[in-house]
Write a structure and sequence with these properties.
There is one protein chain. The chain contains three helices and eight strands. With about 240 residues, it is α+β, with helices and mostly antiparallel strands. It has one domain. It has a five-stranded antiparallel β-sheet with strand order 1-2-3-4-5. Strand 3 and strand 4 form a beta hairpin.
Amino acid sequence: MEEITHAHSGGPERTAADPMSIRSSTSRLRHAISAACKEDGFTLVELLLSMSMFVVVLGATTSFYLLASQTGSNDAARSVAVTEESAGIARMAQYLAEAYQVNAPVGSTTSTYMDVFVRVPGLGDQRMFFTCAYADPTSGYNDCVLYQTSASTPFTAGVAPTGVSPSIFVPRVVNGTASDPSDPVFTNISTPSGSSTHPSFVDISIKTPSKGELTTSNYKGNITISDGVWLRQLDFGR
């Protein structure tokens, strides 16, 4: 048989293990790895871990916000309660200070009511019956209310007039309720100077829930607001 041999001109034959091919392949691999490393993004594990951390941080932030909001509401309700009660007591004390006659109580140092005559500009002589034993069916507490009529209208001393709607002066009074049954609002009813047969001084002391109008609150217990009233016209015998 004839054996044929191919001769290659221009140098030796280049095989797969040629150094030039290896360098080219290595260069392409390096470029591919470099490009992959430069790509942005997260793996699934990193994404799940980030989401878990976000949920924890969000939960803590939300809890803090809710606590701060509740505390703010409690503080606001307490502040409103103190302001409202104080203003009501001040109005009641102002009228009592102008009284020129105490119809009842007489001869007692404590009471749940004050029955007096007051001269009111534009209205003339008025009978003002203050009682702090008015049961409020809505709140479950007592209210300090005023029944006002003309002083010329027939009445029974110490008894609220009929046919007259009361005006609320001080809401949410704990005194006289089941939780504080033996704590009258009006105390130390006396005549310090001895210049009158009718009392000319009275202390007003009212307990009100520190939570104010709220049903539930971080504030427990009651707030006590007090004032003293000098019935100066009676003391001077006017």
